[in-house]
Amino acid sequence: MPELGNVLLNLARAAIAREFGQLSPPAADLSELHEPGATFVTLIQGGQLRGCIGSLQAWRPLLEDVQDNARNAAFRDPRFPPIGDDELADLEVHISVLSPPEPIAASSEAELLERVRPGVDGLILEDKGHRGTFLPAVWESLPQPAQFLAHLKQKAGLPADHWSDSVRISRYTAEAFGD
Predict the structure, then answer these.
(1) pLDDT of 80
(2) Which member of 50, 110, 130, 156 has the lowest number of beta carbons within 10 Å of its beta carbon?
(3) Domain final position from 98, 124, 157
(4) Contact partners, residue 104, CB within 8 Å, separation at least 6
(5) What stretches of 59-144 show up as alpha helix (H) in DSSP?
């Protein structure tokens, strides 16, 4: 729904701009904004990742989730320094609205790789206190399922060849909006 995407992008930008004392007009009030929603906000500067923070489970209204994740991506992503007001004009904002995660039953990595839908699935990997996720958009840079999974394991703090009987994998889809 394009209107929802435009509203979410405006909300994310306004949430970041408010941190610099900039005011923006109120966003359209769509009923979907008050329903629980899980989002990831990804910030791109000069073609490079500048921040990405999100929620994997819908536990608060979509409106709050996107605003908080936008501020967190801009100012609290531990991989990057907080953005400066001089970066705001050139900052690309991308928002992914996630479906509820669903487990993927697989007794081996090969079985898992057969069940994953490249270009469609975002994955959550959990094992032994480690957890990581890749949004479906990551398939653009890691198009091979084995490569996608190996990098996800590393993001979760596990070796690329890790597999155990306790590995849990869930999938979700995402509706993406962006600049």
Answers:
(1) 97
(2) 110
(3) 98
(4) 112, 115, 116, 169, 170, 171
(5) 62-75, 109-115
Is residue 163 one of the residues assigned to a domain?
yes
pTM of the model as a whole? 0.92
Write the pLDDT tens digit of every residue in 120-144.
Answer: 999 999 999 999 999 999 999 999 9
Residue in 134, 12, 136 with CA at minimum distance from that of residue 74? 12
CA distance 45 to 134: 20
With the C-alpha atoms ordered 82, 86, 92, 93, is the resulting torsion angle positive or negative?
A: positive
Nearest to 123 by CA among 94, 79, 156: 156
Q: What single-letter amino acid sits at 64?
A: E
Q: Can you list the alpha helix ranges (DSSP code H) found in the chain?
A: 2-18, 62-75, 109-115, 145-155
| Residues with pLDDT less than 50, the chain | none
Q: Residue 1's pLDDT is what?
A: 53
Who's near 125: CB < 8 A, 6+ residues apart?
131, 132, 133, 149, 152, 153, 156, 158, 167, 168, 169
* In a shared domain, residues 127 and 159: yes
User: Which of 54, 76, 98 is the last residue in one of the domains?
Assistant: 98
Closest CA to 122 of 75, 170, 53, 57: 170
Cβ within 8 Å of residue 12, ≥6 positions away: 41, 66, 67, 69, 70, 93, 95
Residue type present at position 21? G
